[in-house]
Amino acid sequence: MHFFTADEHYGHKNIIRYCRRPFASVEEMDSELIRRHNEVVSDEDTVIHAGDFVFRGKREARVYVAELKGSHIFLRGSHDHWLDKNAPQIWESTIEGRHIVVCHYAMRVWPRSHYNAWQLFGHSHGRLDPIGKQWDIGVDNNDFYPVSFTRLQQIMQDRPDNPNLIKGDE
Q: Which of 8, 19, 41, 53 would you label with 71, given CA atoms 20 to 30 Å apart?
């Protein structure tokens, strides 16, 4: 199964205040994010992280990754200096016939949006309303859990069509 998440900000003390996260310390936040991740993700699952995974360096990032279940794909966000400079900013794939575009940033249009493709984003910490078949997959918008493909199918069922959908050509 595929899971999607963004904006964990592991090790980032000030994100608690900036986003009004319900944690007393960065240690409590990190521990709870890891617990919730591992509660829903199995070792066989793939997790796409859409940026701002860790606020620290490469060594610290490896420590967090080692504690998380699943295999991981990391996209570059605003604070991902730990990633190689050629790390991707966009991930595209088709899962169960549904084209999905993942980027740290929300887009007005995206590849295949005119065919109702989904766009999953982070960066806004739950403060930006999605348009059409978009969803903020950041932890602040999803009770600090990664979002499964199955859950996204439920969410997207109730979302309106993309504004640039070509009617009758889906």
A: 19
